Amino acid sequence: MKIVHLSNHALNxxxxxxxxxxxxxxxxxxxxxxxxxxxxxxGFEELLARHGVRHVLLPxxxxxxxxxxxxxxxxxxxxxxxPDVVHAHMMTGALIARFGVLRRRFVLVTTxxxxxxxxxxxxxxxxxxxxxxxxxxxxxxRRGIPRSRLAVVRNGTLGTPRLADMAAPSLPALARPSxxxxxGMYERKGIxxxxxxxxxxxxxxxxxxxxxxxxxxDRAAMEQLAAQLGVxxxxxxxxxxxxxxxxxxxADVFVLASHNEPGGLVLSEARxxxxxxxxxxxxxxxxxxxxxxxxxxxxxHDPASLAGALEKLLTDRDxxxxxAARALEDLHKFSVQxxxxxxxxxxxxxxxxxxxxxxxxxxAGDAATAHVGMADTAGHSAPL
Length: 384
Hints:
Layout: E1 2-6, H1 16-30, E2 34-39, H2 45-50, E3 54-57, H3 67-81, E4 85-88, H4 91-99, E5 107-112, E6 128-131, H5 134-142, E7 150-152, H6 161-164, E8 178-182, H7 191-204, E9 209-213, H8 219-228, E10 235-239, H9 245-250, E11 253-256, H10 265-272, E12 277-280, H11 285-288, E13 296-298, H12 303-315, H13 317-327, H14 336-354, H15 364-374
Parallel strand pairs: 1-2, 1-4, 2-3, 4-5, 5-6, 6-7, 8-9, 8-11, 9-10, 11-12, 12-13
Helix pairs in contact: 1-14, 4-15, 7-12
């Protein structure tokens, strides 16, 4: 198959959507398919080239004035490659692919990575809409997408090409007991709740240290909160780390306190390292933790429950050992090979059912809808 993946960018900044796309493209190229990523560019181009994935620059911008250039660039790409499948991972690409051509010979597959965003409804334009968890699938069905057009491919990271050529980084030994989170510094990631929970925990475990691995626009506010709570010396803001395996391998407890989490890759990574895990009971987190068998689930927005779960795993050796061992069980379902196989099967079924070479022209009304929808998209521009 000839496959084109569309994304706003290909930056190596810890963006889960981009990481899933890069893994998928590399695995599909390894399987012998002709694979292209069209994006605004970033830091993954060298990796993609090593794995036989073509990268082309395609501008994607929220400005209505850029719509004609985006459409023209996409049409040039389609004319050059003549893809069988276009796979859009973000709204801008989905709308360009659906409404940017008058007559298309490809099927459009869209993946809903962040269902909690209102804009996720735009992903319904795909011939097949893929959710990254059963929870996301149910949410999209409630938004009116027919179940016959929905499919689920759960995220996974085992065997990721992104880290295959990298030696695990050597880090100074973490202080003990250590609590690690790997998350962007955003309010929705529950960092504020985690800091409040950590401050309460330190009353009972004064030697505990929290490592916050990640970057984001709310970092300064979170550092200020840590100071207000009196935990600055023990809540260590590490910043973005491209390869967090060293932190995961040394964590006494891994925590993900998100308010929304469709199918966090980091839970797969934490399980691979045998972490004892605490996560909020939201979105796809229960599925990533086998319904709570492979990690403690706590309510979101609840620092007291979060502190209690952390204390339990830091003080109850038997509970810690059980969860750490359980995290390592049945990991094959989180392999990138399974993710790739799942998507390829969806491509094949969609091609068989849609017969894309016979698609009719779009109506003028469809094109007008696309122009309005693209005005709400966000992207990272680069010249084609």
